[in-house]
Amino acid sequence: MLPDLRDACARAVADLIQAGPDVIVVAGPGAETAEWDPDCRLDLAAYAPPLGPGGQPGLPLALGLGALLLDQAGWTGPRILRSVAASEPAAACVALGAGLAERSGTAVLAMGDGSARRSTSAPGYLDERAVPFDSGVEKAVRDGDLATLAGVDAALAQELMATGRPAWQVLAGALGPARPVTEILYTGDPFGVAYLVAVFTPRPGTSA
Predict the structure, then answer these.
(1) Does 207 fall in a domain?
(2) Tens-digit pLDDT profile for residues 145-181
(3) Using 50, 70 and 90 to split pLDDT, how confident is the model at 48?
(4) Of 30, 52, 75, 79, which is the most buried if we count CB atoms within 10 A?
(5) Coil, helix or strand for 138?
(6) Which of 92, 88, 64, 82 lies closest to 157 in space, CA to CA?
(7) Residue 82 burial (CB count, 10 A)
(8) Any domain includes 208
């Protein structure tokens, strides 16, 4: 992970913890929609040997990185690791997020990439639809426009290899209809993959 991207992720998680949640849900893409043992950790040896091994094989990368960020930030409170399949329709993702938010004091750490087809060197090669797609997602995030985020086209996201789509929509469902205050900490497309790091803060008088 690039230093500026890593620092933005660390700051976002620190802000999440500083808000004082009772439990943090890490939501991210996986092969299936499932809840994982909260004590699971990713075996990072296959991705970054200097970080060392540890954890249970099979934990989705997004959830493993989310758990790692929480550990590095010193979070010792309850956590829920929830993977969401790419096949889940938008309405199901939003409903899942709304269900998670029914528990008071819940915060959501949504993990997942934007499109991976922004250049000829990108994992999915160049697709001219990628940049407009990511720009639309970024605008929705900047505006706190959760309805637009919840309505991101699942089929287009899959074609563009935007694996974060289900997690974004879980987050939208968890935050509810009111527009949150948003702070964007990072945007970029290293390696032809779109990354965006942001913090959503519910407005006073609204639920998280």
Answers:
(1) no
(2) 999 999 999 999 999 999 999 999 999 999 998 899 9
(3) low
(4) 30
(5) helix
(6) 88
(7) 23
(8) no
